Fold this sequence. Notes:
Elements: H1 3-22, H2 27-48, H3 55-62, H4 66-73, H5 76-103, H6 111-126, H7 129-141, H8 146-174, H9 182-202, H10 209-227, H11 230-234
Amino acid sequence: MGLTATKAKTATARREVSKSRGGRPTKSAAIERDQRLIEVATRLFLDRGFDATSLDAVAEAARVSKPTVYSRYGDKRGLFAAVLRREIARWLAPLSAAAETQLSSASDIPVEQRLVEIGREMLNFTCGPDAMAFSRMMTSQAINFPDVAKLGKEEGWLKAVATTARFFDHLVSQGALDVDDTTIAAEVFLDVVVGHTHRMATFGTPMEFKAAEKRMRAAIKLFLAGAIGPADRIQGAPKPAQRRRPSR
């Protein structure tokens, strides 16, 4: 190949590289950019809150242009929804993993022990500082942006209920639980196990894990008092004490 042809080929390659840099990013580059945007936005929302976080600040910290942020998420509400959706998925992952573990565990493990393991995971992911910060932001924005509240309900609460209900279906099939509607049972379980601790954390009261776990264990005992199955009673679970009639 002659010198002229080599120079021409090099010039063409440089133009192609320059064009790719100035044009649309590659798929991998776009994924990396979106991940960086979400990570930066998450940190800023946590540090500053929703109102004090601007798209300009997110774009600058993520090293992207503001039009890029607008084209990807529309506005700050869209960006917050994307951040919230990812955070909820991260919070639900331990619950799903715990439920799957308990589904494959030996059937002779007491149901109370299984529920304690799931309850412990729920305390960790629903009452941690980041989860509570997003919960407060979501509550404060619910009136102005009802679709954000809807997202939290559908992606968070309802999926947690569905995951727990599937686990309860498994326990019912084993005779370990005796409930007619596992979805309602799951809602009650989630509320009594973490509801109080979550509400206190929302008000700014730091969670003391030992106290929260003690309360969670007591709540599970109360839950099982009304939902324990015949199989566990046969295996030695205490029966309710019979009341004696007063002597005349």
